[in-house]
Write a structure and sequence with these properties.
The chain is mainly α. It contains 8 helices and 3 strands; from the N terminus they run αααααααββαβ.
Length: 280
């Protein structure tokens, strides 16, 4: 059930806001643009988690006469909005980093800040691992975005640590350079997620579901011939498939439908065709 996504999304929102507050304080006190950029990234993650909560609220709504397949695609829409925010932030931070190159400012090192940043890096790493495990059971584009963001944020914070530790020794331009590196990482990740989200919204062919269905059919009855298959993805828990099957015994069709629904949670409409050897 999509309601199981409520706790993870709330946890992510709270953790990201706390990380934003900690990193913003360190960024302003140390005058590190790299860490400041990292903190704003966490603020965006908080906003994204709130949007994710709203999308899950829509996704759990029952289907209606006007929306017979439910509201599952709201997750893809939200994932697209979250990704677009990442791209916008990445571009904005790129310009700010270039300004730092032109007018470098000193960065102040504090050992306590290094410890705090290391803890925040560890928190996001653990968060990413936990959600990667949870994501194997609960298929959702929101969760995929959260997992990617957690590992990305871990890497970004590691760069911030390097910036804070070495900027004072190497020079102020290092902070601007690493800030630019973070901006590019955010922008590239956002673009990849935008492309993925848009492909689902615009009706990308769901090859993974097709393969699972065909595999399950042959597992139930190896003599069945699959003539045609079209999968309609309306969200992680609202996948429908239209099939044309050739089977010697028509009474096998309801059994196949029930097995597919019970084991891989996909609804099917099956058209029977006279049995002959060739299949797709």
């Amino acid at each position: 059930m999509k309601k199981r996504l409520y706790p993870p999304v709330v946890v992510v929102a709270i953790i990201n806001f706390l990380l934003f507050a900690a990193k913003l304080y360190i960024g302003l006190r140390s005058n590190s643009f790299c860490i400041y950029t990292d903190s704003i990234n966490n603020l965006m993650d908080t906003v994204s988690a709130v949007l994710g909560f709203i999308s899950v609220a829509f996704a759990v709504k029952s289907s209606t006469y006007e929306h017979p397949f439910g509201f599952g695609r709201m997750e893809y829409v939200t994932s697209f909005i979250m990704s677009a925010i990442m791209v916008f932030a990445g571009v904005s931070f790129c310009f700010s980093s270039l300004e730092r190159f032109l007018a470098p400012t000193p960065v102040w090192y504090y050992e306590s800040f290094v410890i705090i940043l290391f803890i925040t890096c560890l928190v996001k790493l653990i968060l990413g691992i936990c959600f990667a495990i949870y994501g194997k059971k609960e298929k959702s584009p929101i969760l995929k975005t959260i997992i990617l963001d957690s590992f990305l944020d871990c890497g970004i914070t590691a760069i911030s640590l390097v910036s804070l530790t070495l900027s004072e020794k190497i020079g102020f331009t290092l902070d601007a350079f690493l800030g630019l590196a973070i901006s590019i990482m955010i922008m590239i990740s956002g673009i990849r997620l935008v492309i993925t989200s848009l492909s689902y919204i615009t009706g990308k062919r769901d090859k993974n579901s097709e393969e699972m269905i065909i595999s399950k059919i042959y597992e139930i009855n190896s003599n069945v011939k699959v003539r045609n298959i079209v999968v309609h993805n309306y969200g992680a828990e609202a996948i429908w498939a239209d099939l044309v099957l050739s089977v010697e015994d028509k009474t096998q069709i309801p059994i196949i439908q029930q097995n597919i629904k019970n084991e891989i949670n996909i609804n099917t409409t099956i058209e029977w065709e006279a049995y002959y050897e060739q299949s797709i």
